[in-house]
Specification:
3-stranded parallel sheet, single chain, TIM Barrel, 7 helices, binds zinc ion, alpha/beta
Length: about 220
C-alpha cells in the first residue's frame, strides 16, 4: 500500500480547464506537447530528493505517451487516473462520466499493465453536486479518491468540509478525525492506512476519501458537505 503526500497531475498545458474554451479537445493533437519533458524533469528532482508521489494521469496522455507512464511507475511512484478528456464532472452526466472513466482507466492500464485504483477528478470537480461520482468510482473498481478540495473557488471546492477522512459506507458510516493542519492529516492518513486492513485511503489537498465498493452511499455524504 502506498500513501503519498506529494501528488502530480500528468497533463499538458493546453488541457487545463482554464484553456478549454480556447483549445477545443479535438485540436489537442495540433499543439506541441511538453508533458513528457516536464514530467521527466520532475522525476529527476523527486529521485534526487528521494520523494515518492502519486501521479494522476490523463488517459489521453497515457494513450500517446505510454513509455512515460511506464517510466513513472518504474521509478516507484503510484499511478492514478485523472480522467480521459479532462472534463469537469459538473459538465457531464453520470453516464458520460462512466464512459470517460473507463476510457481513461483502460488507457492507463494498457500502459502500465497494472490495475488503477486511485482517482482525481479534473479541477477537483467532485463537489456537493457531483457526489454521485463516488458510487460510479466504487462500481468501476476504484478504491480511493483525491478530488475534494475544502476551499472556496469559482469552479470547485467543498468549503464546508474539513480536513477529515470520509468513509463512504453504509455499514461503517463516515468516520472522521479532525485535523488542524497538513501534518496531522498526513499522520492520520498514514496511521489509518496501516491499520485498516483491506481499506485504502488517499490523500488529497485536504481530504482523505475511502471508497468501499458495494456500500457507497452518496446521500449520506451530502450531509457532510
Ligand atoms: Zn488536471
Amino acid at each position: 500500500m502506498i500513501v503519498n503526500a506529494f501528488t502530480v497531475d500528468v497533463e499538458d498545458y493546453f488541457q487545463v480547464t482554464a484553456f478549454e474554451r480556447q483549445v477545443p479537445r479535438h485540436r489537442w493533437d495540433e499543439y506541441p506537447s511538453r508533458v513528457a519533458e516536464n514530467t521527466q524533469r520532475l522525476l529527476r528532482l523527486l529521485e534526487r530528493r528521494r520523494v515518492s508521489a502519486t501521479f494522476f494521469v490523463l488517459g489521453w496522455v497515457a494513450d500517446r505517451f505510454a513509455g512515460l507512464i511506464r517510466e513513472i511507475a518504474a521509478a516507484g511512484h503510484e499511478i492514478g487516473c485523472h480522467s480521459y478528456w479532462h472534463r469537469c464532472l459538473h459538465d457531464m452526466t453520470p453516464e458520460e462520466f462512466r464512459t470517460d472513466l473507463r476510457l481513461a482507466r483502460d488507457a492507463i492500464e494498457r500502459a502500465t499493465g497494472s490495475p488503477v485504483v486511485a482517482y482525481r477528478a479534473p479541477s477537483f470537480s467532485i463537489t456537493r453536486k457531483t457526489l454521485w461520482a463516488m458510487e460510479i468510482l466504487a462500481a468501476e473498481g476504484f478504491r480511493y479518491d483525491s478530488s475534494i478540495f475544502p476551499i472556496y473557488h469559482d469552479r470547485y471546492g467543498s468549503p464546508a468540509s474539513t480536513l477529515i477522512s470520509l468513509r463512504i459506507s453504509r455499514s461503517i458510516g463516515r468516520g472522521a478525525s479532525p485535523a488542524g493542519s497538513w501534518f496531522p492529516l498526513r499522520m492520520y492518513a498514514t496511521r489509518a492506512a496501516v491499520s485498516s486492513g483491506d481499506s485504502v485511503f488517499g490523500l488529497s489537498c485536504g481530504i482523505v476519501s475511502r471508497i468501499r465498493p458495494k456500500s457507497c452511499a452518496s446521500e449520506r455524504c451530502l450531509q457532510r458537505f
